[in-house]
Amino acid sequence: MPEEQTSAPLPGPRRLVIPTREALLQSFQAHEALSLLWVGLELAVIVAGVSWWSFQESLIPGWQFALLFSFGFLGLFDFILLQHLANRKPLEEIRPEAKLGIHTRDSLLAATRRVQERLGLTRHKFRVYLVWTAISLVT
Asked: Model's pTM, two decimal places?
């Protein structure tokens, strides 16, 4: 029978660390560069595939080629499809009486405003989403 582990109490309250604006911008630029590289690679593969197919004898009927090409082309934009098909909801659209653990919709909106103020981003309107995952449903 396994021994029961006792957890030691934390030495003090833990506080969420908010990164600086410069750190966020640097992280964004790094992710943007990686995304541009990935999109460029996908475009190169598409161009190479279409070029190869155009020089081949017609082995695939026209309608099947169009179907295969459209699926391949949509594969390039899978991140767009994921954005529209994700199981997410803007915080503003959540019912005011909804309880999310210890939080309510209004407390999450207030926390969002505080973070924007700390980062100096109050001039801009940001949409914040609540993403529902299978993991969040497990208790």
From this structure: 0.41
For residue 122, give the nearest of 114, 134, 130, 132 by alpha carbon: 114
- As a whole number of Å, the CA-based R_g of the chain is 24
**C-beta of residue 44 within 8 angstroms of C-beta of residue 51:** no
List of residues 6+ apart from 121 with CB closer than 8 A: 21
Structure tokens at 52: 């190869």
Please tell me whether residue 7 adopts helix, strand or coil conformation: coil
Phi, psi of 99 (to 5 degrees): -110, 130
CA distance 107 to 88: 18
Q: With a cut of 70, say whether residue 130 has pLDDT above it.
A: yes
Judged by DSSP in three states, 16 sits in coil
Q: Does residue 123 sit in helix, strand or coil?
A: coil
Asked whether the predicted pLDDT for residue 91 surpasses 70, the reply is yes
Averaged pLDDT for residues 72-101: 75
- Which residues make beta-bridge pairs with 7? none
